[in-house]
Amino acid sequence: GDVYKRQVSTQSTWDIIQQRYMQGVKATAAWTLTVIIGMISFGTINTITLKGQTKRQVYGHNFIHPFLQCLIMMMGEYGCLLAYGVRVWRTGDQAIDSPNTRKAKEEGKKEPNRLLFAVPAFFDVMGSTCNFFGLSRVAASVYQMMRAFMIVITTTLSVLFLKRKFYIHHMIGISLVIGGVIIVGTVTLHNTSSTNKTTDALGIAFLLFAQCFSGLMMVSEEKLIKSSGQVTPLLAIGLEGLSGCSYVLLMLPFLNQIPCTPESRNENGRRTDVYCPFGFLDDVPSAIAQIFNDLPLFLLIVGSMCSIGCFNFFGISITQIMSSSSRAVIDPTRTLFIWIMSIALGWEKFIPLQLVGFLISTTGMLVFNEFIPLCFCGINYNWGKKIEKRNKHRADLISTGLLKQIEAKQ
Question: What is the pTM of this model?
Fold first, then answer.
């Protein structure tokens, strides 16, 4: 009777452990899906609000203030630090924010020097500023297309600095994403009615530089986060926002004194320089006057500030759960939603071939992140789950001593 009771008790305990394990797996999978949807959604909102700002005319000028707009974005990221402070004040827990940070805490990993987050913040400021310059001269879908170049940069840097291995299915996924966005951008560039003649080579050049800085930002973030595991996404983005605000605030007084060249004016004597219509690289007083004298522009500013904080929070969560390369591959897929929004707002016209490019790009993202299996020519042999299964099997053989016996027979 006692033996039977012990067996029942043992089975019950095992059932509880197994049930909790499965709940943890489901929670992790659900959180992964949540951060992917969150990144795509808030990323779409952010691009649309930023493009809306550059198209908004106040006092006869479009709102083109790249450095001030960068400061606004950094302020949005800094808001994550305030949210983190409120969370710590309410819960008293500074580390536990996800399964990854819990695991790192249990393993005794230490949090890195918080001043190091000034490094990705610098890359973020440079990339965001170049993005603003470029966005004022290209269609929103072309802007998003150019962000696919970041995949190449991030993948290369991941191999060099993070020693990450990429397999055939990763290369196929990356190729599909890049191919899809190139189709979208090429069709847009060759359709003047879609771009409203606002896409030029200089704008594209700025965007290419921006993607280089964005790739550096993502890889440096991953290096900092995964080296310790104890930095929560809210804290990481908040620290970057604080550093970014410091950078831009130091630069703005000087930028307000640097004149633009060459000078061009229209029939009414107003400056028509595309990138600095007020005569200087930036003009904060004029920008503030534009913002507070135009309600739609003010709402777009608030929208971009809130969306960039959420977008980067979900983005760095993807870096923490998966990798910076996965984040770079997922990012261009929001082009489809940006395209739909741009058509709804009358900024672009529907072109069927663009839809083909979007479908190819989305398929590439799913292949790269192993949502779609490629069950031919052994391509899925190096899937993450299969590698993990082989490693577990090898560990079991080592623990039982069977591996030495097998190697001895060989």
Answer: 0.71
How many separate helices (H) and strands (E) can be counted in the chain?
Answer: 17, 2
Cis peptide before 233 (omega within 30 of 0): no
Euclidean distance between CA atoms 156 and 170, whole angstroms: 13
Measured on CA atoms in the order 101, 104, 105, 111, is the torsion positive or negative? negative
Cβ 302 vs Cβ 325: under 8 Å: no
Encode pLDDT of 78-87 as tens digits: 988 888 888 7
Distance CA 107, CA 11 (A): 29
Please write the tens of the pLDDT for every residue from 271-295.
445 556 667 778 888 889 999 999 9
What is the C-alpha separation between 270 and 293, in angstroms, rounded?
20
Could you count the other beta carbons within 10 Å of the beta carbon of residue 165? 10
The residue behind tokens 């908004």 is: 56
Q: Are 84 and 234 in contact (CB under 8 A)?
A: yes
What 3-state DSSP class applies to 257? coil
Question: Of the candidates 51, 71, 127, which has an alpha carbon nearest to the alpha carbon of residue 255?
Answer: 71
Reading the block at residue 214, the tokens are 């964005």
> Cα separation of 281 and 67, whole Å?
8
CA-to-CA separations, 92 to 84, 85, 97, 230, in angstroms, rounded = 11, 10, 12, 15
